[in-house]
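User: Hey, my collaborator sent me this sequence without any context and asked if I could get a structure. I don't really work with proteins. Can you help?
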Amino acid sequence: MAVTDHGVDHARREYAKPPIKIFKNLSSKIAAIPMILTATVIFIGCSGWTIVHSFTNSKLLPKLDFVGFDQYERLWSSRRWLISVENLFIYGLCSLVFTLVIGFLLAALLDRKIRFENTFRTIFLYPFALSFVVTGLVWQWILNPEFGVQSIVRGLGWESFTFDPLYNSDIVIYGILIAGLWQGTGLIMCIMLAGLRGIDEDIWKATKVDGIGTVKTYLVVIIPMMKPVFVTALVLIASGIVKVYDLVVAQTSGGPGISSEVPAKYVYDTLFGRQNLGQGFAASTMMLVMVVIILIPYVYLQFGGKKDQ
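Assistant: No problem. I've predicted the 3D structure and written it out in structure-token form, which is a compact way to encode the shape of the chain:
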């Protein structure tokens, strides 16, 4: 009888074993198959196809006429490409810093439970609902010296006032930056506000008891606790920076001259304007490298140093 009971207990334990992990949440995994296939075939497949043809002499049509790194040598010897990379660096660095700082400051102000919070939040977020083309056109009018800010200020009596960034090749990228900040800061503000609202009120009470000032509390306590929120905001901003195109086309079309060129516009013009597929694919590959450089810190911040418990 003891042997029998032991056998029953063993059978129960075997029956109670958790299912194999591969079959866990099977329905959700099946539902994800189309997305996985799409990402694999379209993204990875097309990216690989583009990289391969970036080493060819393809012109109007793709062909496997390999020329080694010739396309990349031509790319990095092109003044237009170098200007576009420089503009992207300036735009990206300024956009990253100012969007994070302004977005966090606005979120911190709204988190103080001010009056008409919903109204202000709507006003700040509204520009994000507009397309980049509309934003670019609006700011093209605002920055136009004939009827924009410069004209209005001069009409008030300051005849010597000058503000025409879109017509000055030295500062045109900053005119584009203004439009980008106006549109993107609202979204980052909402993300930061959600992070701030997730902070336990007891933490604020404890810092007040310890006599820590508000600014120091944000810098020493709150911001370190919001690391995942900042990482998410950082990736969203960075992904928008690399593919900036609409704003440039709507505001300046790359002018004056080529002073406001960006990599995405260079790729588009090379592929469809000059019909030089090899050169366009090389530029696209360099943009892919930029995206990978952005993703590496993100993956490290999200998963680096984490060990299985």
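In plain terms: The radius of gyration is 27 Å. You can pass these tokens on to your collaborator as they are.
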